What we know:
This protein has helices spanning about 50-55, 60-65; strands spanning about 5-10, 15-20, 45, 80, 90-95, 100-110, 115-120, 120, 130, 135-140, 150-160, 160-170, 180-185, 190-195, 210-215, 220-230, 230-235, 245-250, 255, 265-270, 290-295, 300, 305-315, 320-325, 330, 335-340, 345-350, 360-365, 370-380. The chain is mainly beta and about 375 residues long. Keywords: Cytoplasm, Disulfide bond, Immunoglobulin domain, Methylation, Phosphoprotein, Repeat.
Amino acid sequence: MCGKSHKLVGDGAKMKISLWSPASRQPSMEAATAPEVASSGSTLKVKETSPADAEGPPASPRQEAGSPIPQLLSPIEEHPKIWLPRALRQTYIRKVGDTVNLLIPFQGKPKPQATWTHDGCALDASRVSVCNGERDSILFIREAQRADSGRYQLSLRLGELEATATIDILVIERPGPPQSIKLVDVWGSNATLEWTPPQDTGNTALLGYTVQKADTKSGLWFTVLERYHRTSFTVSNLIVGNSYAFRVFAENQCGLSETAPITADLAHIQKAATLCKTGGFAQRDFSEAPKFTQPLADCTTVMGYDTQLFCCVRASPKPKIIWLKNKMDIQGNPKYRALTHLGICSLEIRKPGPFDGGIYTCKAVNPLGEASVDCRVDVRAPH
């Protein structure tokens, strides 16, 4: 409101006249334009206002005359927006006992009101701490538990404007062991196993199973296979003569289960029995009558020098050897020595004299027959 005053001064009297300008008491307002949508990771909401709300109720004459002018809210200089880090745009995975410390930057001027929720409910102040600054908000969990898993939402409110961002947190731990394991069958050097999945997978999907074996002699465990997805397996190439026990671990992103069930029965790998089939096999008969394979040879010897006669005979069973001189049996005569070894027959004539010449015969006799060979021996006088 503005006005002008003029003073008129005259003789013995003073007059004061005030003039008022016709300016209006109602302030003028501009309609707010729609703000830009926040970048990736946040959503901006605007509450629409009607023209009647924008104009406001008409001023009363009393308000025009003496009431003070109503104060306006601070203008919005910067729309609320949440800058969600790229690593938090997918599921944020932590292990049980780890610390969760998330810093989420945002913008907005004047400072917006930041609010966190967990699966649509207010945060548990005994477990989760929140610190809101001028340009960021921090969510802090000292020791994460599986119950802390879920969807967390950050909301920024500035007047009628609102921006939101969601973060999925998954807290995992090692899986429980398979419930049971059973030795189904053993044959040759193979053993078949079956087991049941664990009741607790550690709040995440299993990566598979690890199968191990141990023989009773050493008691050491050796891994047969890793990250196997089925619940049955046949272990091969087991050593003959050993006995084996087996166990199975479950595995997820945190590692193997702390314990593993062991088969109650041992797998005994036995040596296969060798059977000799004799039926239908004809035994060969090696029996035969005597037969000379090498005959006696005629010879001339010198009087007084020992002489030997040789021949070879084959027969089964072993034949009886008889030596003859001029068809007379000479066995037992000390002048002659007869030997037989491996079918070779020999006769030694010791220091023959002029009467030792003649026809010598070797006869072989067994139950299947007989055979004989002859030779002529001449004895001459020394020169």
